[in-house]
Amino acid sequence: MASIAAQRPHILLFGPPGAGKSTQSARLQQRWPIVAISTGKVLREEIAAGTALGRQVRDVLARGELVDDALMVATIRTWLGALPPEQGFLLDGFPRTLAQARALDSLLEEVGRPLTAVIQMELSVSEAVYRLGGRRICHGVEPEEIIHINDEGAVARCLARGGLLVQRPDDLPNVIVRRLGVYEAETEPLVAFYRQRGIVHKVDAAGSPEEVLQRITTAIGGAPG
Ligand code: AP5
After folding, report:
1. Mean pLDDT, residues 103-123 taken together
2. I want to staple 39 with a disulfide (CB 3.0 to 4.6 A). Which of 51, 94, 151, 224 is the partner?
């Protein structure tokens, strides 16, 4: 079985809020020579820095709605344009609409780097709500870590590192429900868009992060580096 490292993978991590996209993105980057972008994280950093873009999108994120397509496509265009030609990459949280998916196709065609795998992470609504309701960011230390409030070991490690446990504003119960609804209406239909290309791999996102990582690895057809 060929190593995904040898294939310079171009991966799209796809799944509902709470599926564990960012958790798995961090693990995949530790094992393979890929770089990742989380469009949600980019937006949160803009908000935290108080930039014009951050001020423009802050209320949209707080409501659990989607940021304007043109803005997100411009963000990805800039990011892809700065990548070295041989660099494998992973997209976490993009595309989220059909317009974004079509724009991504055009961008990747321009640079001759087609997607090699779409990982469709599947999780029940009840588990997603549990994970998001308990999610905390271990903030103020590098690297920041995503943890769950019920994971006593992770909480203790964060505090021992001098980190602060911060809850995302969009992890409040009413916003979680809104985000899950937006995912179902706007983003989930994209699976059909990619399925016809034969690159969609369904992965059960329940179980421990390590178990999910192994499933993704198997789906992609690679071996840990
Ligand atoms: P974004 O940050 O992308 O949010 P999301 O898609 O809703 O995904 P999350 O970050 O909530 O979840 P995740 O799947 O990454 O899970 P995580 O690993 O953190 O986007 C935020 C907002 O930005 C959007 O709502 C929108 O407004 C805007 N936006 C972003 N991109 C956009 C775009 N392209 N177009 C328009 N707008 C855009 O894990 C969640 C929790 O579960 C954590 O506590 C974690 O520790 C825990 N966990 C993870 N895996 C496991 C496991 N296997 N077992 C137990 N617990 C686990």
Report:
1. 95
2. 94
